[in-house]
Amino acid sequence: KGFTDDDFYTDATLMKMLVAQTDLNFDPGEEFTYSNSGYWLLGQIVEKASGMNMAEYAQQEIFKPLGMTSTHFHNDHTLIVKNRASGYVPKLDGGYKISMTTLDMIGDGGIFTSINDIKKWDDAYYNSTVLNKEFWNTMTTNGKLNNGEKIDYAAGLFVEDYKGINHINHGGAFVGFRAELLRFPEQKLSIAVFANRGDANPSQMAYQIADILLKEVIQEETALIEEDKPQPDFNVKEIPLSQMEGNYEIRPGLSFSITVNADKLEVIQNWNKSNYLIERTAGNTFEIAGQENLSFTFLDVESDNTQTMKIIQNEETSIAKRFTPLDIATINFNEYAGDFYSKELDVTYKTSIKDDTFFMAIEDRNPTEATIAIKDQFSTELGLVRFIRSNGIISGFELDSGRVVKLKFEKQ
């Protein structure tokens, strides 16, 4: 809609916007996507069911009984909080600036707490009568999709394996604040990292601490995993670098260009133009020097060229297929220009063309440049824009932005 971290809006604004949505990302239970709106709505339900707002209810039923005297839901941004920390983010020209919020929404976040209180919260996992075993069993039971597939997400917590060890985790990020809480129940180890600067990475820090404190356990578990893990085939026939050159696409708007640079490959991420060198480590697998958590494997040679690039980052696998980039000389960019209105957001996006370059702006804000992915699809700062045609004429578009897909806009 164009709101920024500095804009003010209320629960009523948010409810109106959510009620106006006409489509789902997917049928319930078919996939999983984290939803801040869902947690905000749960906060509204607590208020309706209990007769008191979420902040009052949590204070009375959870924080006070647990002795968490420095913890509260911050639903009044004018409230003075003793010993509070300000949030900071980097400035483009160097240094930092304050990054705080004036929003009073709670449910999806908005909790003020301290390290000492988080220790009390963690103790409650093991021995509290306020939050009993039945509560924690419910909170840590992994969800299942309609097809029976178990997901890593439970009831507000991620419950998953880390280097062979079961752990519970959740991070958070808003304005100039970042946080991570890891719990390893079998080892009775919890690691909490709070930061008040937006360029911090508490999750990375927390796992680095876990690697140190759980070194012996991880080594034992890793040894067991490695025994069952298929080993890299160092004798596999190496594909010449020249056969790997080309363009590979995970999905429209998310593509890579691969070129040979001396005895290495240069990777260009086309959506943000960042580039880096990768070098062969085993067979046809490549890595950035010193970064074992990211690898590129080239597969499926046809017509003297690899057709597939498999990317593994932090154990998550993505498949990119070779594709031929669009010849923009065949595109009539002018037909994409105009005003497009979203009834769901009550906002107009304005598109314009200059020198065969596509620009998009929210209302009268500064336009940003976009890149054409395939015909009628553009990769923009907001996400992927898919134009819709009626009888060959553009009538609107759908926007996939972050966790939202198929947001509809009509041409005016």
Itemize the secondary structure elements and their pairings:
Layout: H1 11-19, H2 36-50, H3 54-63, E1 72-73, E2 88-90, E3 96-98, E4 111-112, H4 115-127, H5 133-139, E5 158-162, E6 165-174, E7 177-184, E8 189-195, H6 202-213, H7 215-228, E9 246-251, E10 254-261, E11 264-269, E12 274-282, E13 285-288, E14 291-302, E15 305-313, E16 316-322, E17 338-342, E18 347-354, E19 357-362, E20 368-374, E21 377-380, E22 383-390, E23 393-401, E24 404-411
Antiparallel strand pairs: 1-4, 2-3, 5-6, 6-7, 7-8, 9-10, 9-16, 10-11, 11-12, 12-13, 13-14, 14-15, 15-16, 17-18, 17-24, 18-19, 19-20, 20-21, 21-22, 22-23, 23-24
List keywords for this structure.
single chain, 412 residues, alpha+beta, eight-stranded antiparallel β-barrel, 7 helices, 24 strands
- What is the molecular shape? globular
Spatial sequence of strands, sheet with the most strands: 9-10-11-12-13-14-15-16
Largest sheet: 8 strands, antiparallel, barrel
Number of strands: 24
CA radius of gyration is 25 Å
Mean pLDDT: 91
Portion in beta strands: 35-45%
Helix-residue proportion? 10-25%
* H/I helix tally: 7
Question: pLDDT below 50 for ≥5 consecutive residues: which ranges?
Answer: none
Structural class: alpha+beta
What is the CA–CA distance across the termini? 17 Å
Describe this structure in words.
The protein is of the alpha+beta class and 412 residues long. Helix content is 19%, strand content 38%. The protein contains seven helices and 24 strands. It has helices at residues 11-19, 36-50, 54-63, 115-127, 133-139, 202-213, 215-228, and strands at residues 72-73, 88-90, 96-98, 111-112, 158-162, 165-174, 177-184, 189-195, 246-251, 254-261, 264-269, 274-282, 285-288, 291-302, 305-313, 316-322, 338-342, 347-354, 357-362, 368-374, 377-380, 383-390, 393-401, 404-411. The protein has an eight-stranded antiparallel barrel with strand order 9-10-11-12-13-14-15-16. Strand 2 and strand 3 form a beta hairpin. The longest helix is centred in the first third of the chain and has 15 residues, at 36-50. The radius of gyration is 25 Å and the shape is globular. The mean pLDDT is 91.
